[in-house]
């Protein structure tokens, strides 16, 4: 293995953080050629939301730009949107970066995701460093991905790390396109990339309280009322202090608190993570639970259960063991297809979508034919290649 690269070969680019810097840099970028490599560094483990605190952009004929948007986000958008929105982007793990870029009003005209390309090519490891090593023979230094990128000033070693994330990203994309083309998968990849691009055209919608992990385990209206109040209070405190919500109150603690409905400090200690609330105002959180329970019962949320909702795996097995057996067989079919085409099964069809297709075919009987199945998969976001690959497998088991 080669020695890890710790600094950009042409030196560390300056950090640009003023409207004047942005205007001049955007002109340089516009004068470059070809697609742009883009990456972001965020601080969602430390700050409220998932906004970008650093943008790294590289284009041939321009070099690498390091942009600090904080305090001048509108100015960055005004300078770069007219340039970037007309270009093809190369990103590694685009689903992580596109939301924060959309928040800045930046959108690609076309997209190439090198991580997703690695998955479709059948790579065992698809992190950026592993793919650089395997495809380009370049060893990247690791170590700063989980830092608090809202820190100012940013240390030089962090800036070096950030610049290296895009240093060879264009070359990696070109090499991956050749590999995918040779394997007959380039059209599949372009369908996946376009789906990703279209999915993130708008900034992410505000998170809703029922979407928090574990909220679905709350069964009674009283528990749901407590869960909603705790979630809304956590959001308010996190937003007011610009702190990550999990630093205000861990999600698993919030949900278990709503489930157990503690009334005393002793009961709160038995909540998952309750012992660690000592420095986070345990009495305050107890009062929030009490306030939820005192509120008007007519306003309490009701458990949601649609007649067409796919049951959980645990309840499905007892509810309809025959269709559950079909699902088990289809998972094996998909695993065989995955091995044959060297694409992970979850990339051929999302596990949740496979479950839904089986349930609506055999459980509630709303899908009766292969053509209806194709339309259902398309409506749920499956790409044409996925529909072509999986419809025959599913239809053979359910019809």
TrEMBL record:
Q: What is a single molecular function from GO for this protein?
A: 3'-5' exonuclease activity
Which SMART domains does the UniProt record give? Answer: 35EXOc, HRDC
Q: GO BP, one example?
A: nucleobase-containing compound metabolic process
Query: Where is the sequence biased in composition, kind Polar residues?
Result: 306-318
Q: Residue ranges of region Disordered? A: 295-318
Q: Which domain of life is it from?
A: Bacteria
**Feature: compositional bias, Basic and acidic residues:** 295-305
Give the HRDC domain ranges.
220-299
Q: Where are the transmembrane segments?
A: none
Enumerate the InterPro entries for this protein: 3'-5'_exonuclease_dom, Exo_C, HRDC-like_sf, HRDC_dom, HRDC_dom_sf, RNase_D-like, RNaseH-like_sf, RNaseH_sf
* Listed name of the protein: Ribonuclease D
Species lineage:
Bacteria, Bacillati, Actinomycetota, Actinomycetes, Mycobacteriales
């Amino acid at each position: 293995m080669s020695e890890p690269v710790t600094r950009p070969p042409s030196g560390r680019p300056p950090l640009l953080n003023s409207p004047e810097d942005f205007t001049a840099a955007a002109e340089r970028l516009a004068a470059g050629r070809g697609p742009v490599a883009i990456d972001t560094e965020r601080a969602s483990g430390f700050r409220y939301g998932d906004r970008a605190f650093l943008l790294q952009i590289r284009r041939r004929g321009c070099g690498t730009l390091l942009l600090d948007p904080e305090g001048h986000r509108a100015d960055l958008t005004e300078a770069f949107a007219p340039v970037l929105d007309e270009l093809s982007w190369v990103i590694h793990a685009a689903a992580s970066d596109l939301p924060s870029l959309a928040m800045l009003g930046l959108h690609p005209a076309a997209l190439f995701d090198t991580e997703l390309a690695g998955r479709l090519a059948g790579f065992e490891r698809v992190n950026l460093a592993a793919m650089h090593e395997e495809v380009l023979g370049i060893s990247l230094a690791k170590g700063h991905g989980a830092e608090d990128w809202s820190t100012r000033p940013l240390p030089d070693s962090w800036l070096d790390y950030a610049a290296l994330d895009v240093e060879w990203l264009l070359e990696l994309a070109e090499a991956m396109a050749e590999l995918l083309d040779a394997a007959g998968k380039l059209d599949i990849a372009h369908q996946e990339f376009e789906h990703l691009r279209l999915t993130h055209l708008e900034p992410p919608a505000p998170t809703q309280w029922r979407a928090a992990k574990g909220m679905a385990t709350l069964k009674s209206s009283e528990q749901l009322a407590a869960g909603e109040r705790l979630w809304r209070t956590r959001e308010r405190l996190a937003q007011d202090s610009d702190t990550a919500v999990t630093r205000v109150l861990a999600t698993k603690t919030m949900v278990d608190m709503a489930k157990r409905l503690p009334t005393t400090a002793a009961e709160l200690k038995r909540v998952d993570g309750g012992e660690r609330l000592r420095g986070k105002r345990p009495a305050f959180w107890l009062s929030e639970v009490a306030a939820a329970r005192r509120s008007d019962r007519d306003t309490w949320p009701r458990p949601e259960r649609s007649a067409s909702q796919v049951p959980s795996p645990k309840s499905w097995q007892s509810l309809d063991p025959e269709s559950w057996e079909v699902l088990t067989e289809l998972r094996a079919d998909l695993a065989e297809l995955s091995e044959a085409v060297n694409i992970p099964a979850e990339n051929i069809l999302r596990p949740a979508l496979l479950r839904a297709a089986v349930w609506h075919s055999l459980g509630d009987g709303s899908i009766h034919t292969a053509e209806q199945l194709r339309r259902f998969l398309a409506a749920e976001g499956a790409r044409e290649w996925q529909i072509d690959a999986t419809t025959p497998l599913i239809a053979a088991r359910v019809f």
